[in-house]
Amino acid sequence: MGKSATIRFAADKNVGKLAKWLRLLGFDTLYESDAPKAGTTGFWEKDRIFLTRTKKRFLGHTGLQHHIFISSDRVADQLVEVIQTLGFVSADLRLFSRCIRCNQPIKTVGKEEVVASVPEYVWEIHDVFKSCGSCGRVYWPGSHIERSYKMITRLFS
Ligand SMILES: [Zn+2]
Q: Which residue range(s) make up the domain with 129?
């Protein structure tokens, strides 16, 4: 079992892009600015790893067991910081298994079910679709931008 099944994150409001990328890699990542959810869905749960760019922020939460201080400005470098700190390998990832908008796992759905939800040209050329049970967003190969793959490949090369 990969680490994506066990490691969970809580992303400070100043690392929103990083939060989306971690979801894209398959990690359960709550984002503080998704208010009011942050206060009610276990954002400060002890086993979540708090990601922040502000040292003061985690000093104020002494109950936190784990945090990673993010020092880079670019999201690609921030991802490297997380990956190296936790020692992730590519087998730990579950790419495109989670909704990047609301953090819920997405599920494979039948092609017929999404005919009204995706552009016609997309429906014509793709056979595999996934959908988020929470927000209804539909995903297909290519809906996550192609440079995602390139970036991920680079991270683990
Ligand atoms: Zn969603």
A: 106-144
